[in-house]
Amino acid sequence: MSPFWCLDRLSEEDVCTVMARSVCAKSAFELWGHGQTHSELRTSLLNYPQEKMIPYMQKGSSYRINVYTFNKTLSFEDRIKKIDAMDYLPFEGTVSLKNPQHIFCLLEDYGTDPNNVPEQPNYIYFCRW
Known about the structure:
Layout lengths: L11 H10 L8 E6 L2 H9 L3 H4 L8 E9 L5 H9 L9 E2 L6 E8 L13 E6 L1
Parallel strand pairs: 2-3, 2-4
Antiparallel strand pairs: 1-5, 4-5
GO molecular function: methyltransferase activity
InterPro entries: TRMT11_N
Protein name: tRNA methyltransferase 11
């Protein structure tokens, strides 16, 4: 069981319709990569079409990466380490924490049992918000 629901091959309009009718959904993201480990996530992201990434990573643009975890709280330092480990992505813009043009999210799912939280996430997603 996961708190994340992946919808495939829907238009942005379709996603907006689903979100408008949903009571429990918090956010919708454009999924760029995923995996059970950070290594699998990296492979998935490097296989994502560059032409879809480039418009959001150009020089002159600004961005921010948020790290969200389900069923585990990470320290600020751990969040920064996870963001820094994604240096393989071709970001050419500048980081803007207050007013970015583009927001990206690293989502980590640590399962649903608060009494048995694993050290590593069960699944990881990288998305554009």
